[in-house]
User: Fold this.
Amino acid sequence: MKSIFNRKKKETAPPPSSSSGGRRLSNVALSAVSEGEMAELNKALKGVFDKYAEKKGITVDGLTAMCKECSLVEGKLTEAEVSLAFAKVKLKKSTTLNFDRFQEVCRALASTKGVTYQNIIQLATGQDVNTDLESTDHFDVDPALMMSRQKKRLTVEDFDLLKVLGKGGFGKVMLVKLKTDPEGELLAMKSLRKAALIKRKQLEHTETERKIAQTIHHPFLVNLRYAFQTVDKLYLVLDYMGGGEIFFWLQKQRRFSKNRVRLYMAQMTLALEALHKKDIVYRDLKSENTLLDLKGNLRLTDFGLAKENVKATKGAATFCGTPEYLAPEVLRNEGHGKGVDWWAMGTLCYEMIHGLPPFYDQNMQKMYQKVLEEKLVWKGPLATDEHEDTREILSGLLHRKQDQRLGCGSEAADEIKAHRFFASLDFEKVLNKEYEPEFVPPIAHEGDVSNFDKEFTNQRAMDSVVTTNLDAKEIEQTKFEGFTFTDKGGNMGE
Ligand code: ADE
Assistant:
């Protein structure tokens, strides 16, 4: 008999969709900006320069401090790259940069990572820059990127498709690399079939996913690097997380040590806190959406179910999520808020230590019943003395009344961070990734995909042809404003 520990991947229950709002969204990574906007950007950058410049100009330490504070180091750049960018534009033996040189460094940093100058400024200033598709940005310095921007926007043709990493109802995720940058970093490309999204009423959620992934940059969230579309498909190009899913490792190793779980929990707390501070509820925390990088640090991915503008504890109403992780207030359909993420985090913590979620049952109706009524019991390692503080934090996170749940009070995530379960960790150091993860995912060489399911990695990596034709209305309906739009031949379709 198959063990109940060998569970299948958990499907997210899609919420019903409503009509999309009319706000024009800012464009994705490789977009152009008008001269007026560039002046605005440079003004914003001058503010950053003034903040980090000491007397005569900015030093490499000042630049690194700025990059760290803006998550540029942890999110996109290594310190070595920051110093290198500084060195590239240093005047003679000068150890400080004036504003012009500082601008150049920022451009160099942008091109290092294949993002635009405005992305770097956006990160540094936290501002949302609206871009103008008609005009050109004079500031990008990478000639290869300039070529791909001026002639045509990025398409799937611009990437080498290396491996299949995963597949779902809407499309697949592939390991890719930009053809213009063969020595560059590996990326993950998620392609989604519009016909499937229409069928399951998921168009709006894909747009929410792009918007959130594009605007929020955080060391523990998977960042969006590029987005584009054809008539039939949407493409999201994301940070590649070569360590695979927590789901994969739970299947393989069944349980994790307390130390390991503590660091994952701390990283998740910071990621969820960052979303909650922007009034975004994630709503899909589960082991499949929790990915590891090659050092063993975690990032959350897939914002398809996330909900914006949730301020109150009952600010969202839609029944959605993944059965195992659904909070009682979602099952009771009584309105929910940020607390659903803390409930799901408690559930995942329990699962990582014991091997199964707290109210697990193969029969979904029974599982729902248990979530609503069954006493929380401590199984496996959770029953031992070592886990006294784990039991306490779990009792707080898995409190059925959302207003009494840990993280749901006026102190929000700070209440969780202050719990004695985390006493051995300094959250500032967690944010800066100063703790070495206990588990480092093994890889034999760059591009080794053995941390992903062979069911997918054995398949041929290709951009499959879509056979369902959309009608004219559907084509119009699925022309996502915020994505760049190209026809099948790669020409601009707008
Ligand atoms: N699966 C889904 N998203 C992924 C990513 N960003 N990296 C690796 N595998 C993934």
In short: Confidence is low (pLDDT under 50) at residues 14-32, 128-152, 488-494. The first strand starts at residue 159 and ends at 167. The chain has three domains: 1-6+135-242+447-494, 17-130, 244-431. The two ends are 56 Å apart (CA to CA).
